[in-house]
Amino acid sequence: MTDDPLIDRNEAQKAARLEELRAELAELGYVVEKRSAPGGFPASSEGRTSMSTTRAKFKCDSITEQMGSKPGADGKWEPCVMKSISLSPVYGNGDPKHENTKFWQATPSGRLELGVINLEAAAMFVPGKEYYLDICPAE
Asked: Is the pLDDT of residue 86 over 90?
């Protein structure tokens, strides 16, 4: 609170608008968090929020198998099976309330190619199945 009621009202309006924007972004799969510096102070002098995590929704298009290589116990490279996994963003289905339409509006194009030699990890991918991808900075 300040001694100036005009400033207080303006800050309240900003806070209300920020909550509206957070709700809109959440509908699109984004997560907006208010970051604070140590001691609870805002990360910036204005207390701005930042996009710390972005969620996208992708569909597995294909999985192919090929020969790859991995380091062996002796430090030398040895042959192994590698799964190549191809994913692309989901498509909107014409229903503006459908989750895939909302994700498509935020991420209409893209491609993710993974070369996976951990076959247990690769087993979770199935062509035609949809997956959420949560992306955040590596800090």
From this structure: yes
